[in-house]
Amino acid sequence: MFYYYGRKKQIAKHYPLPNFETIIEPFAGSAAYSLYGGNWKRKVILVERDERVFEIWRWLIHYATASEIKSLPDLKIGEKSSEFLHIVHAATKMAFHYKTIKVTPLLARNWAISKRYMSDNLFKIKHWQIIHGDYTMAPDIEATWFIDPPYKDDAGKGYRYGSHLINYQNLAIWSKERKGEIIFCEGYQGDYLPFKPLLELKGVAGKSSKEFIYYRSNKTSQQLSPSS
């Protein structure tokens, strides 16, 4: 719904489509999977530990209007902002530690794009639910679980509640106890579940990164592997 470092907006199409009427994202971020395609029409429950990200979702779901979002001022290059909704649009996970940020051309562009997207798609999320807390606060119900935590080790550092605060063995145990289906995202250092390669992403300067997935479903007649 808004820019968020590590979001899955560009690769959401590669993940299995939900087989259940409820989608739960216990590490909400910007909830790109729940917004992909027609997924948003289902019952969506987001859980977010970072209170600032939670407040963005609470505002969007319960209070914001499309016209209000459209009327939000553009960011001017060179100025400074202390608004977290602006700061999170910086193209770095270290933005989560900034109290103020200087507006760069990239930040101004990301904000302008997000403002249009939020206003145009706000109607999709008004029936969603947002819970403030860590992943264990999610309701224990049958659902499509899209689990996208900060990735293990270096890839998950920088967030306010990053990899250094996560016990991945406990997360793995908890995840396998979920009812329904699990779509679990990780990077190349994920070793706490039997992850399989999903795709390789090409980055700048010839660098690339690999996305991995753990997938389990109790609906054997449905889609059982990542989409290509």
Structural class: alpha/beta
Question: Can you write the helix and strand succession as a string?
Answer: EHEHHEHEHEEHEEE
Alpha carbon gyration radius: 17 Å
Task: Give the biggest beta sheet.
Answer: 7 strands, mixed
Identify the overall geometry: globular
Q: Within the largest sheet, what's the order of strands?
A: 5-2-1-6-7-9-8
Helix count equals 6
How far apart the termini lie comes to 24 Å
**Estimated share of beta-strand residues:** 15-25%
* Average predicted confidence as pLDDT: 91
- In terms of per-residue confidence, which ranges show pLDDT below 50 for 5 or more consecutive residues? 221-228
Helix content: 10-25%
How many strands appear in the DSSP assignment?
A: 9
Oligomeric state of this protein: single chain
Describe this structure as you would to a colleague.
- By secondary structure, the chain is an alpha/beta fold.
- Helices cover 22% and strands 21% of the residues.
- The protein is built from six helices and nine strands.
- The protein has helices at 32-35, 51-62, 66-70, 84-87, 105-121, 168-176, and strands at 22-25, 43-48, 80-81, 101-102, 129-132, 143-147, 180-186, 196-202, 208-217.
- The chain has a seven-stranded mixed sheet, with helices on one face. A two-stranded antiparallel sheet has the order 3-4.
- Helix 6 (168-176) links the parallel strand 6 and strand 7 (180-186).
- The longest helix has 17 residues, at 105-121.
- It starts with 21 loop residues before the first strand and ends in an 11-residue tail after the last strand.
